[in-house]
Design a protein that fits this description.
Length: 390
């Protein structure tokens, strides 16, 4: 199963409410606007959110998730859009503690300027369980009694936020169906071998620094069962694994599902990193963890190097956008393709949760469910309305 597709699937966020979202194109040129210059609506530095004529917009800027230690030089693992002013930390880490997941794991998060709102990509995990008291069969893995996605998510919530109060659990059958082709059932002489997929989202509340907050985690998990009945009782051995999960947290009155959806649908796995990760040697995962952390810290502090990686990653994205836009539109099932003659390849993939899309003359995109939205009236920027690619 392609890691690129799996990674993309596992970053599917929750549904969003009607909102207008604007995203900057990092490679766009800014043509001259014929109309007289007019002062733009004021922007709120804390969140990148601005309002004008009753229309809510979000200014987004390009960011990169870095794999600093896995290869001979730091690589961009993925690109995405973050709200203006947000800061990010972490990336892809390699070390002996990740032996169970092929030597690496995602640990990345981004925060709003005030630190109150956060999105995270949580590490992929793998574990084993059996009903006959045996130890693990895979080095580095743990024995855990998580035989379904509900038990896994409930345990994960309390590991991430001890004391959190689980409020809602929702199976995501829409996501599970996207993996239906990987589900198998094979009869055996004394039992069966079966693989199935479960997907779900969990919502919890917790108190942090005296403030009530809401958090969500969405994950896709794969379970494999080997059942044997030789006449001395049923013996079950289960292997469970997850792919990088998408988590959000914010003050209870400011948990913005539309914003998190816009971020989630902007994530693009870098094709160069995807090729390298598919061919990596398992021995790389056994490198000394401490050395990896030291180098990761050095890279994280080097703003110039990160800027260079981000620039190269987005340049690669622009060059290959005509091919990748369609690939990701099909893979994510969370975006749709719009005709845009100014974009590489003539199309752009944007969130499917909005009915209307515009490309503005400053190179940004605006998504809206408001049929009366007018970019000049609401944002004081000229733009062109886009049509869906059929």
């Amino acid at each position: 199963m392609s890691f690129l597709v799996l990674f993309a699937f596992c970053l599917l966020g929750s549904a969003c409410s009607p909102t207008t979202v604007a995203v900057e194109d990092p490679a766009a040129q800014k043509p001259v606007v014929d109309r007289p210059a007019v002062e733009k609506p004021a922007e709120t530095p804390a969140s990148g959110v601005a309002s004008g004529s009753g229309t809510r917009t979000v200014r987004m800027e390009p960011a990169v998730i870095v794999d600093a230690t896995g290869f001979e030089k730091p690589l961009a693992a993925a690109t995405l859009f973050l709200p203006h002013g947000w800061s990010a930390e972490g990336g892809v880490f390699w070390g002996a503690e990740f032996t169970c997941t092929n030597g690496y794991a995602f640990r990345w998060n981004a925060r709003s300027p005030d630190g109150a709102t956060q999105i995270s990509i949580l590490p992929q995990e793998k574990w084993e369980w059996n009903n006959y008291g045996a130890g693990v069969s895979t080095p580095g893995c743990a024995l855990q009694p998580w035989t379904n996605v509900k038990s896994y998510l409930e345990a994960l919530v309390h590991r991430v936020k001890p004391g959190a109060r689980i409020k809602h659990f929702q199976p995501r059958e829409d996501l599970r169906k996207q993996f239906a082709q990987y589900e198998t059932s094979t009869p055996m002489p004394m039992g069966e071998a079966r693989t199935w997929v479960e997907a779900a989202e969990i919502r919890a509340t917790f108190t942090e620094a005296g403030q009530e907050k809401v958090g969500t985690i969405l994950v896709v998990a794969v379970f494999s069962l080997l059942r044997n009945n030789s006449g001395m009782g049923v013996m079950d051995a289960i292997t469970g694994s997850t792919f990088p999960a998408y988590a959000t947290s914010a003050p209870a009155k400011a948990h913005d599902a539309a914003l998190y959806e816009a971020i989630r649908t902007s994530i693009q796995v870098d094709p160069n990193w995807e090729r390298r990760i598919q061919g990596h040697n398992v021995a790389i995962g056994r490198v000394a963890l401490e050395e990896g952390r030291k180098r990761a810290a050095i890279i994280a502090k080097s703003s110039a190097e990160i800027a260079a990686i981000r620039s190269a990653a987005w340049e690669s994205y622009s060059i290959s956008a005509d091919r990748r836009a369609k690939d990701f539109a099909d893979a994510l099932r969370g975006v749709q393709t719009w005709r845009d003659t100014a974009a590489p390849g003539g199309t752009v993939a944007l969130s499917h949760n909005y009915d209307h899309a515009w490309r503005l003359n400053d190179g940004s995109y605006v998504l809206s469910n408001d049929p009366s939205f007018d970019p000049w009236r609401d944002l004081k920027v000229e733009g062109k309305k886009l049509g869906l690619e059929r």
